[in-house]
């Protein structure tokens, strides 16, 4: 895990190495100061040797300045290394997520991926910074201080033999007690994040349903749970300080007592005594830092595990080496295809689908919600992978194609349309980065979008808000169709893409597509018979199976479901567009 993390450092590796070295330099000089002080008092002052005092004084100043410089450099290095690490980890995570298949994304859920990319990475960054600064520093400080303390007075140093184990045991108990409490706290924190994210993403729905109060209560509840969990964890952690101070003052008292007696009988000098006291605080400081590092590592290991989980996720859809890049034609064949979102089950979402579609054919798909229409077409550009049987495009299994080529040839307007912030033109050019104005306008005309775009003061240069908030549902759908058309695909799939468009515009779009897309295989999913009745053939989906296949007339004559839907929509002026 750690190795994988460190491999994200990249060019910042040198800072991660330099940082601890600088910290070690800082601490060695720091530890030498009390020793020098002892020499000044015991040798310089005792002998009234001014030149010795000045010389040692200057050395001490130099050491202090050196320690300061090393400290600054170490802080600078650790900041560079930890921010570099955060950048590297985020980039690696983002790249991995870009390669995720739809089922990989389903597994993690979007809010959790966001938390992992932000909060968890920040946790790691902080812990890493702390490690660089302290992981070397505190043991070095500990051992150097013990060394000098023993050097000054071996007998007095025996006090540490009692104090250090006492402190060590106390820290160990505290750390083992807080570890599970911190893990619980992090889980609660996760939950808090998902509540916030869900609420913010769905804020319009919350307002439309006047659920603010309910949402506020839900939030307060989880916020309070976080508070409690945090309180429980911190409560134990706070005992750390009093115990440490108790041990420190106990040490100082015993050193004063025994040391004072030694000075009286001549076994110790005043300067030595003074510096000994300094070393006590340095040793206890070092122990304190080690316990802090330990707790911080415990805390961040939960975050690290969540990050590595994403990095190690097996990308469920891979392309073969040397996969085909040319899709010969727009024919499609499903051959005994079964599929489910959760692996093999007895009752899959798609059940034994077999159908052949010729290049250039227009196919309508109709069926109730949840009858797996969207699922069926998502297998064509290999957004999901068939569990059994095979899906063929252009006479070859979709698994034999290079993913980019396949998806470039199969344009899909998803049921949930997404536009990005940027101008209308930029959004359209997603489909075809090099498209000139003429091509763009032709596509927009076919999608019945040209007129409403021109109605904006800035036309094609109109800025879209995040997710296209300043467009109506029907306008968004038409832009998405135009974007798909610009790809010049061999197969175009419209998944309920005109549901928010009025029937007149819908039929205008269909006519334009028919003219502009001769030779392109077109699949139109719709709830409205009128949108698909002109198709060459129509598939009736029912509960993951093909219930009927034929022309409008054939199905009317011999398919019960189709006839029922037809009758129910007869004479009704379908819901108006938005
Ligand atoms: N990402 C998903 N994860 C798990 N189940 C899903 C997912 N998407 C759809 N389903 C389930 O698959 C079934 C078919 O859904 P879908 O193909 O979207 O139906 P339709 O487009 O005909 O309304 C439904 O029961 C739905 O709950
Ligand atoms: Mg659907």
What do these coordinates show?
The protein has 578 residues and is α/β, with parallel strands linked by helices. It folds into two domains: 2-311, ABC transporter type 1, transmembrane domain (ABC transporter transmembrane region fold, Up-down Bundle), CATH 1.20.1560; 332-569, Rossmann fold (3-Layer(aba) Sandwich), CATH 3.40.50. It is built from 21 helices and twelve strands. It has helices at residues 2-6, 13-45, 50-98, 102-108, 110-134, 137-152, 158-201, 203-208, 212-237, 240-265, 270-311, 373-378, 403-409, 424-429, 437-446, 450-455, 473-485, 503-516, 529-532, 552-558, 560-569, and strands spanning 332-339, 350-357, 362-367, 388-393, 396-397, 410-413, 422-423, 463-464, 491-495, 521-525, 537-542, 545-550. It has a six-stranded mixed beta sheet with strand order 6-9-10-3-11-12. Helix 7 (158-201) runs antiparallel to helix 9 (212-237). The chain is elongated and about 120 Å long. The relative contact order is 0.08. Bound molecules: adenosine-5'-diphosphate (ADP) and magnesium ion. The site of magnesium ion (MG) has 5 residues, from helix 12.
Strand order of the largest sheet: 6-9-10-3-11-12
Number of domains: 2
SS elements, strand count? 12
CATH level-two architecture of the largest domain:
Up-down Bundle
Under CATH, the homologous superfamily of the largest domain reads ABC transporter type 1, transmembrane domain
Radius of gyration: 35 Å
State the separation between the terminal residues, measured CA to CA: 51 Å
**Multimerization status:** single chain
| Strand composition percent | 5-15%
Shape summary? elongated
CATH fold-level assignment of the largest domain: ABC transporter transmembrane region fold
What ligands does this structure carry?
adenosine-5'-diphosphate, magnesium ion
> How much is the average pLDDT?
87
* Helix proportion: 55-70%
Q: Which structural class fits the helix and strand makeup?
A: alpha/beta
What is the name of the CATH class of the largest domain? Mainly Alpha
Q: Low-confidence runs (pLDDT<50, min 5 residues)? A: 573-578
């Amino acid at each position: 895990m750690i190795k994988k993390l460190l491999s994200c450092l990249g060019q910042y590796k040198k800072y991660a190495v330099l940082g601890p070295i600088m910290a070690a330099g800082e601490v060695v000089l720091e530890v030498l100061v009390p020793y020098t002080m002892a020499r000044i008092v015991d040798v310089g002052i005792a002998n009234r040797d001014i030149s010795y005092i000045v010389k040692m004084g200057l050395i001490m100043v130099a050491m202090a300045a050196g320690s300061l410089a090393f400290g600054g450099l170490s802080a600078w290095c650790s900041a560079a290394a930890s921010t570099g690490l955060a950048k590297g980890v985020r980039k690696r995570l983002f790249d991995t997520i870009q390669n995720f298949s739809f089922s990989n994304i389903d597994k993690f859920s979007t809010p959790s991926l966001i938390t992992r990319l932000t909060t968890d990475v920040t946790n790691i960054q902080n812990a890493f910074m702390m490690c660089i600064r302290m992981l070397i520093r505190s043991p070095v400080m500990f051992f150097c201080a013990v060394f000098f303390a023993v050097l000054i007075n071996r007998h007095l140093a025996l006090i540490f033999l009692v104090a250090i184990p006492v402190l060590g045991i106390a820290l160990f108990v505290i750390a083992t007690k807080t570890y599970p409490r911190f893990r619980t706290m992090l889980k609660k924190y996760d939950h808090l994040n998902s509540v916030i994210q869900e609420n913010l993403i769905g804020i319009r729905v919350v307002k439309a349903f006047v659920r603010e109060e309910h949402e506020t209560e839900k939030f307060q509840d989880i916020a309070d749970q976080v508070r409690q969990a945090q309180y429980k964890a911190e409560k134990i952690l706070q005992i750390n300080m009093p115990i440490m101070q108790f041990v420190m003052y106990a040490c100082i008292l015993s050193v004063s007592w025994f040391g004072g007696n030694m000075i009286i009988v001549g076994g110790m000098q005043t300067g030595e005594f003074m510096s000994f006291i300094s070393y006590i605080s340095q040793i206890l400081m070092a122990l304190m830092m080690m316990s802090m590092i330990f707790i911080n590592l415990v805390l961040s290991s939960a975050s690290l595990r969540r990050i590595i989980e994403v990095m190690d996720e097996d990308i469920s859809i891979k392309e073969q080496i040397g996969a085909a890049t040319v899709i010969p034609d727009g024919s499609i064949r499903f051959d005994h295809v079964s599929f489910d979102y959760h692996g093999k089950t007895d009752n899959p979402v798609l059940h034994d689908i077999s159908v052949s579609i010729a290049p250039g054919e227009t196919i309508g798909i109709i069926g109730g919600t949840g009858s797996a229409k969207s699922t069926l077409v998502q297998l064509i550009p290999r957004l999901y992978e068939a569990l059994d049987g095979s899906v063929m495009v252009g006479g070859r299994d979709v698994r034999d194609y290079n993913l980019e080529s396949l998806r470039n040839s199969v344009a899909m307007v998803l049921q949930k349309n997404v536009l990005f912030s940027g101008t209308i033109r930029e959004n359209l050019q997603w489909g075809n980065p090099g498209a000139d104005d003429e091509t763009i306008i032709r596509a927009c005309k076919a999608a019945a979008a040209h007129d409403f775009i021109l109605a904006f003061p800035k036309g094609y240069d109109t800025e879209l808000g995040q997710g296209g908030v300043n467009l109506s549902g029907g306008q968004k759908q038409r832009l998405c169709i135009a974007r798909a058309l610009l790809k010049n695909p061999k197969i175009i799939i419209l998944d309920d893409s005109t549901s928010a468009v009025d029937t007149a515009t819908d039929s205008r779009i269909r006519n334009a597509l028919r003219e502009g897309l001769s030779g392109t295989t077109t699949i139109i999913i719709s709830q409205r018979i009128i949108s698909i009745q002109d198709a060459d053939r129509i598939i009736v989906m029912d509960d993951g199976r093909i219930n009927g296949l034929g022309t409008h007339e054939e199905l009317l004559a011999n398919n019960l479901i189709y006839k029922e839907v037809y009758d129910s929509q007869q004479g009704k002026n379908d819901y108006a567009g938005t």
